[in-house]
C-alpha cells in the first residue's frame, strides 16, 4: 500500500479500512440506474475527530470522499462514486444516541442511528418523531432528514427539513462547525448542556442558516457528525380513518381545508395500487383486493396526547366528519379487506425485509418532486400517458402524495416496479423514467432533490441556481473533495 493508504489506516485504524473486491463491489452500485464504479477504499470512522482528519487528508491528497450512513439497499445513486479512486466514508457505525431531552423534546444523535434504533429509545421517554412513510429499518435518521425525505405529519412540518434542527458538521475544508443555536455556544455538546442549551432552534449562527446548505446536498458540502431532531409526545389515544374518492380531483379542496386548519396528525394520499403494496406481506400478497378498494384514499391519523387524550380524539373525529360532509365526501372508519392495524403500522413503523417497494417484482424506480395539489391530476395524466406509450400498465403505477409544510407543498411520488433480472423490463422502466421526468419538469414539477440524471435536467434550466451553488461550494469545499460529480459539481 502506498503512503496515502498507510496514512488512511493511521487515521481510522487498520480494522476500519476495507479494500477487498467483494466489499467494494457492494458500494459500487445501488438500485438506481446510476452507472457502477468501484471505490478505492471504504473507511469506517467512529469519532468526529477522525472525520476531521479524513477530510484534511483528502484535501492534502486530492482524494474524493463520499459520505454514507444508511444500510442497503440504496435507491438514488447519490452514494455511487462518480469519479475514480474515491473513498466511501461509511458512518453507519456511529450509533450513539447522545441525548434525549424530554423537557425540550429533542434527541441528539450520531449519523449511524437508524429509525429502528431511535424509535424504541424515544418510546422509553414517552416521545416519538415524525418520520417518513415506512422507512427501511436500517435507514439513517440523519441521512433521511438531510435529504428532505417527506414526513407524514404535515402540521409538525414547520420547514422542509423538519424535524431536523441543529447539526455538527465537518465542512469540506476540514473545519468543524455547529449550526443553528448550537453555533452560538462552545464547540462541545457537553459544555452546551451544562449551560442549559438544548440545540432546538435551527436558525443560525447569527443571521445565517447554515443547516440549509447541508439539506438536499447529497454529501457535497460537509459531513454531519451529529444532529438534533425535534420530537413529540407519544399519543395515548390514536386511530386512523379514511376519506375515499373515485378521482383525485374530488379530494383536492377537502385536503387543502384539512391541512389549512391542521386537523389530524398523519395525513397522506394513496392510490389503491400503492396502498396494497404498503400493506403487502413479504411475498407481495395482501388481504385486500384492488376491486374492493377505492381508487384513491386520504389516510388520516387522529391522535390525543397528554391531557384528556380520548376527549381530544373525539372532538377531532366530530370535526373531521363535519368537514368531509361539507365537501360531499364520506368519512370511513375502515376499508374493505384492509385491517386498521395494517394501516396504523404505517404511522410509526419500519418496513420489513425486503423493502416494501421491492416486494412486487424485486426492484422499483421512483419519480418524485414537489408541487401543489391542484396540479397533481395533470402530472398523473402525463405519467400514465408516458407509461402506456412504453407498454407499461398505468394501473401498476403506485402513487403517493404527501402534504408538506402545513400543506403549502406536496411531495408527489410515482413508483414503477420491475424485474431487475429482465433486461428488457429494466430498459423499459429506464426509458419511462427519463422521458416522464423531462415531461413533468417541463410542466412545472419541481425536482428539489436532483439525483443522478435529474441533476443535468434541473441545472441546465437554472443557470442562476447553478452559479450560486458553485460559489457556495467553493467556500465550504474549495478542492471539491466531497462527492464530486453530484448535483452541478
Supply database-style keywords.
five-stranded antiparallel β-sheet; single chain; Uridine Diphospho-n-acetylenolpyruvylglucosamine Reductase, domain 3; globular; Alpha-Beta Plaits; alpha+beta; Uridine Diphospho-n-acetylenolpyruvylglucosamine Reductase, domain 2; 489 residues; six-stranded antiparallel β-sheet; 4 domains
Question: Describe it for me?
Answer:
Helices cover 32% and strands 19% of the residues. The chain folds into four domains: 3-90, Uridine Diphospho-n-acetylenolpyruvylglucosamine Reductase, domain 2 (2-Layer Sandwich); 97-233, Uridine Diphospho-n-acetylenolpyruvylglucosamine Reductase, domain 3, CATH 3.30.465; 237-348, Alpha-Beta Plaits, CATH 3.30.70.3450; 361-452, Ferrodoxin-fold anticodon-binding domain (Alpha-Beta Plaits), CATH 3.30.70.380. A hairpin with a 4-residue loop joins strand 8 (164-171) and strand 9. With 489 residues, it is α+β, with helices and mostly antiparallel strands. It is built from 15 helices and 17 strands. The two termini are 30 Å apart. 45% of the residues are buried. It is globular. The longest helix has 20 residues, at 423-442.
Amino acid at each position: 500500500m502506498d503512503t496515502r493508504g498507510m496514512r488512511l489506516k493511521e487515521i481510522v485504524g487498520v480494522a476500519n479500512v476495507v479494500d477487498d473486491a467483494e466489499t467494494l463491489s457492494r458500494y459500487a452500485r445501488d438500485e438506481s440506474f446510476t452507472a457502477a464504479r468501484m471505490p478505492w477504499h471504504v473507511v469506517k470512522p467512529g469519532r468526529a475527530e477522525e472525520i476531521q482528519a479524513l477530510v484534511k487528508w483528502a484535501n492534502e491528497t486530492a482524494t474524493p470522499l463520499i459520505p454514507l450512513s444508511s444500510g442497503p439497499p440504496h435507491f438514488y445513486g447519490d452514494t455511487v462514486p462518480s469519479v475514480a479512486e474515491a473513498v466511501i466514508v461509511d458512518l453507519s457505525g456511529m450509533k450513539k444516541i447522545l441525548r434525549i431531552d424530554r423537557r425540550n423534546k429533542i434527541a441528539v444523535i450520531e449519523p449511524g442511528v437508524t429509525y429502528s434504533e431511535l424509535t424504541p429509545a424515544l418510546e422509553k421517554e414517552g416521545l416519538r418523531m415524525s418520520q417518513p412513510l415506512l422507512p427501511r429499518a436500517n435507514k439513517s435518521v440523519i441521512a433521511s432528514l438531510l435529504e428532505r425525505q417527506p414526513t407524514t405529519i404535515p402540521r409538525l412540518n414547520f420547514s422542509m427539513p423538519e424535524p431536523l434542527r441543529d447539526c455538527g458538521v465537518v465542512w469540506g475544508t476540514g473545519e468543524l462547525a455547529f449550526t443553528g443555536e448550537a453555533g452560538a455556544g462552545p464547540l462541545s455538546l457537553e459544555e452546551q448542556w451544562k449551560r442549559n442549551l438544548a440545540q432546538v432552534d435551527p436558525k443560525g449562527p447569527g443571521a445565517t442558516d447554515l443547516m440549509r446548505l447541508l439539506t438536499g446536498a447529497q454529501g457535497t458540502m460537509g459531513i454531519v457528525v451529529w444532529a438534533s431532531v425535534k420530537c413529540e409526545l407519544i399519543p395515548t389515544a390514536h386511530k386512523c380513518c379514511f376519506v375515499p374518492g373515485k378521482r383525485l380531483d374530488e379530494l383536492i379542496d377537502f385536503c387543502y381545508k384539512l391541512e389549512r386548519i391542521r386537523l389530524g396528525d398523519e395525513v397522506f394520499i394513496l392510490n389503491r395500487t400503492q396502498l396494497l403494496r404498503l400493506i403487502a406481506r413479504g411475498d407481495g400478497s395482501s388481504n385486500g383486493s384492488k376491486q374492493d378498494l377505492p381508487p384513491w384514499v386520504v389516510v388520516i391519523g387522529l391522535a390525543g396526547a397528554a391531557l384528556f387524550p380520548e376527549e381530544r380524539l373525539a372532538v377531532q373525529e366530530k370535526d373531521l366528519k363535519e368537514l368531509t360532509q361539507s365537501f360531499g365526501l364520506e368519512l370511513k372508519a375502515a376499508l374493505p379487506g384492509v385491517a386498521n392495524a395494517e394501516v396504523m403500522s404505517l404511522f410509526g413503523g419500519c418496513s420489513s425485509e425486503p423493502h416494501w417497494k421491492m416486494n412486487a417484482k424485486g426492484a422499483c424506480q421512483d419519480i418524485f418532486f414537489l408541487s401543489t395539489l391542484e396540479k397533481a391530476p395533470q402530472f398523473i395524466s402525463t405519467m400514465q400517458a408516458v407509461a402506456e406509450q412504453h407498454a407499461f400498465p398505468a394501473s401498476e403505477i403506485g402513487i403517493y402524495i404527501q402534504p408538506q409544510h402545513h400543506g403549502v407543498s406536496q411531495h408527489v411520488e410515482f413508483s414503477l416496479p420491475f424485474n431487475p433480472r429482465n433486461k428488457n423490463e429494466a430498459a423499459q422502466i429506464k426509458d419511462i423514467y427519463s422521458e416522464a421526468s423531462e415531461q413533468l419538469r417541463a410542466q412545472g414539477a419541481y425536482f428539489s432533490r436532483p439525483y443522478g440524471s435529474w441533476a443535468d435536467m434541473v441545472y441546465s434550466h437554472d443557470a442562476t441556481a447553478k452559479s450560486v451553488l458553485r460559489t457556495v461550494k467553493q467556500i465550504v469545499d474549495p478542492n471539491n473533495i466531497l462527492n464530486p460529480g453530484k448535483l452541478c459539481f
